[in-house]
Amino acid sequence: NENICSNVSPEMAQSLLDAVASLTPHLISITAIAADSISLESKSKWASFRRAAVAAGGGTMVGAGAVLMVTPLHPVGHALAIGGVGVLGTEFEAPKRMISSAKGRWSERRKAKESEPEEKDDTGAKESEPKEKMETVER
């Protein structure tokens, strides 16, 4: 297991390999991974920077979309807010859960709408058909 072996000392790894080799020598596969020239500290700095940039960009998109929702450009506001949640979902778990939940509800509604029979109203016309206006002419 990569996770276990990456957290043990070299002496412990040697004793573990010796124990496994004595039991099943044909099942051993050893992979050595060379350390990158970039230190772990600089990787975490870049990861933190990326996370902050995603938070700022996605948050700005959601905020601008919320402002545009109350203006005559409300379709643009909705699209911008949904796009901002998508951007935030690339780095954070809560927006990912929100997006997957919305996708699930959307597909359930679509399936339910496709499976329900067309109902007729009192005039005998189907709901999906346009109702004709009846005009009365007085003479």
Question: How would you characterize this protein structure?
Answer:
The protein is an all-alpha fold. It has helices spanning 2-6, 10-23, 40-68, 74-89, 93-115. Helix 3 (40-68) packs antiparallel against helix 4 (74-89) and helix 4 crosses helix 5. The mean pLDDT is 76.
The total strand number stands at 0
Which ranges are low-confidence, i.e. pLDDT below 50, for 5 or more consecutive residues? none
Largest sheet: none
Q: Which term fits the overall shape? A: elongated
In which range does the helix fraction lie? 55-70%
Q: What is the beta-strand fraction?
A: under 5%
Task: Count every helix, treating DSSP H or I runs of 4 or more residues as helices.
Answer: 5
Taking Cα atoms only, what radius of gyration do you get, to the nearest Å?
A: 30 Å
| Separation of the first and last Cα atoms | 92 Å
Mean pLDDT: 76
> What is the helix/strand order?
HHHHH
Secondary structure class reads mainly alpha
